[in-house]
Each structure stands twice: as structure tokens, then as C-alpha cells.
Amino acid sequence: MGNLMGSLKYKDPSTVEECDSTWVTDSEDDTYEGEEAEGSFSGCPGPSGPRRCGEQSDSFPQFGDTAESSIKMKRSFHAAKDLYKYRHSYPNYKEPRQPNEYCNLRFYLNKIPLVPDGIYIEEILSKWKGDYDKLEHNHTYIQWLFPLREQGLNFYAQELTQDEIKEFLNMREAKRRFLLAYTIMLDFFGIKLLDKNGNVARAANWQDRFQHLNESQHNYLRITRILKSLGELGFEAFKLPLVRLLLQEALLEGTLPNMRHSALEYFVYTVRARSQRRGLLRFAQRLYQPPENFIWGPPKRRRLPGVGVKGSRMEAAAAADRSVSQTTPPVQGRPSSPKGEKAMGSRSAEGPREEKDNQENMRSPASQKVHSLDM
């Protein structure tokens, strides 16, 4: 029996290809990746359908695109492995040995403050929104607001456990506060939550906040953590609208050019459904410049006899259009605000003219040092 159990022991993937099953199939009927894995935690119902919970921390640095044109692009194995484990709910995860005190849940029920600062969740929700200096320079709250099943660099913050996740999902007050915390961070990034389905759009202050976000790349670690925590706590469906908006701003609008690499290498791969990841990557591939540096697409296939380059490109564009329409949830109509506010998924933002104009203007400023305390 011991030998049998040993043969079934989980084995870590050793290549990027083993970590990434996005292009294993082109079927759009895929279930969440890893949901058949032994020991995985399922049954995390969210606001708009079934979903699963995952884990892990933002433990690998994410950088901008400054060096893209001078070096050959390649995928990060550490990032791919990290996100593979997250999407599969950590196959070899072990619960902490100490008694589970549900510290994350109790924090969200306003029963204990975050440590070490001694601040309660209600104070954050009522006083921190719009206080961008505090949100930028305090590096201990993010692990409490968006907990994961892995230890971050705030060693006072407690890891989530499967039992705690189950209890959290049954607490309406905890989930309500979690979404309020999400809206505070979206506002910090220059984004607003539109509805209970997770659709997002530019906020009124988007220009100033996007400029800051483009120049403060340690916040990309925070976004990765937020996306993972959404999946942990029952809001998997909220990831797709946010990731697509960030891709649109980075690749089409040119407002977040430094985010291109992190969005494609990290944000997309927090999404568990393979079909949704494919849709996001096809959307990105149509906009990415230079196209030969796009390394997240499907494996190259041998061209069929009689099919020219022009024909295959037209077929690829049509397939991308279909995939984007299938993976983009409905959003509110695009506002006519003079400030240029765009709802995520606005089809008018994908027109060839705007796409060409914005791609010509996309330049990546110098990459900045990643702040490790946000991991």
C-alpha cells in the first residue's frame, strides 16, 4: 500500500508547457482547470454561477516591457508553475499544524484588527477610499484584505484554509465587506465596479490613476493577488472583466503600456477556465505589437495545402472575434462622458481605426523596481 501511495504522489511540472494547458484543446466547453484533481476544493458558489477556490501568493516579480525589443521573449517558468498550482488548488497543499483560528474571517467580521497596524476592516472601508497615499505606501493591509492559501511577506497575516473558505462563503457580511474592499482597490487603480456580475469600467479619475499605475509596477503584484483572492472567496467570475479591461488599456488604448507583460504572463493565467484564457489571449494577440514577440498564443501549426497567408489571417481574426464575444460578459452601455470613460467589453473600442491609432502611440517607459513588500 505504501508503494502504491508513493506512486500516486503529486509531481511538480518541470516545463512551461506542462504548466499551461490553455491550448490543449480548442473546445469552448472546458470546465475549470484542475477541478478533478485529488484533494482539490470545490463548491465555492459565487454571485453568478459555480466556481472553485484556489491558492497561492504573488511570489515572483513582474516587470514592464522595456526590454522586449532588445531580447528574445520567453515565458517565465516560475510564473507558469506558480499559477499552475493556484489553478489546481495546490495539489500538495498541507493545512497549517496550529489550530485554525479563522483569523481572516474574523477580520472581515470586524472582530479582530489586522496585524501589525491594529486597524479594523470597518475603518478601512469607511476612511481609506480615495486616500491614495495611504493605499500606496502602506504594505501590510493587502495580505489581510485579499488573503490566500500561502504565506506572504507580512508574517502576521494568516494563510487561508479550506475550512475557513467554506465558512467565509456562508457569511453574507464577510462577502459584502470583501466586495467593498475590492471597490476601494479598483478606485485606487482608476476603475469602478459596474454591477454584481463583476463588470468594470474606467472611473472618473482614470487618467491620473492610470498614469500612476503605469509607473508603479509593484501594484501589478497587488492586482495578481487580488485576482487570486477573488477566486479563493467565490468570485471567480469577476476576474474576466477586470483582466480584459486591463488588456484593452495596455494593448489597445495605450494607457498602461508597462502592464503588457504582467497582464499576459500573470493576470490572464489566474483565470481557471481554459476557454476564457484562450479568448483573452486571442484578443490580446490581435493587438500586440510587434506581433512576432507574442509568445502566449497556440503552438504553430503547419499550414494546410492551398491555404494562403491572407486566408489564414482572415480565419484567425474571425476566430478571435468569436472567442471574444463568447468570453465577454454583457456590460452596461458605453457612457458618452467627455472624460473618455469606457465600459469593459465595449465593441466600439475594438474598431480597426482606434486599434491602429493607439498601437502607433504605445511606448513603454522605463521599467521601475518592483516593491517586494506587496507580495
Characterization of this structure:
This protein has 375 residues and is mostly helical. The protein has one domain (46-63, 76-295, 310-374). It has 16 helices and two strands. It has helices at 2-7, 16-19, 77-87, 103-108, 121-127, 132-137, 142-145, 162-169, 172-189, 206-215, 218-232, 239-253, 260-267, 274-287, 309-327, 352-361, and strands spanning 191-193, 200-202. A two-stranded antiparallel ribbon has the order 1-2. α5 crosses α9 and α12 runs parallel beside α14 (274-287). The radius of gyration is 21 Å and the shape is globular. The model is unreliable at 1-7, 35-61, 66-70, 307-314, 327-341 and 345-374 (pLDDT under 50).
How is this fold's topology laid out?
Elements: H1 2-7, H2 16-19, H3 77-87, H4 103-108, H5 121-127, H6 132-137, H7 142-145, H8 162-169, H9 172-189, E1 191-193, E2 200-202, H10 206-215, H11 218-232, H12 239-253, H13 260-267, H14 274-287, H15 309-327, H16 352-361
Antiparallel strand pairs: 1-2
Strand content: under 5%
Report how far apart the termini are: 40 Å
Number of helices: 16
Instruction: Report helical residue fraction.
Output: 40-55%
The count of β-strands is 2
Cross-sheet strand order for the largest sheet:
1-2
Describe the global form. Answer: globular
Structural class comes to: mainly alpha
Major beta-sheet overview: 2 strands, antiparallel
Q: Please, what is the average pLDDT?
A: 77
Taken together, the total number of domains comes to 1
So what's the oligomer here?
Answer: single chain
Rg is 21 Å
H/E element sequence = HHHHHHHHHEEHHHHHHH
Low-confidence stretches: 1-7, 35-61, 66-70, 307-314, 327-341, 345-374
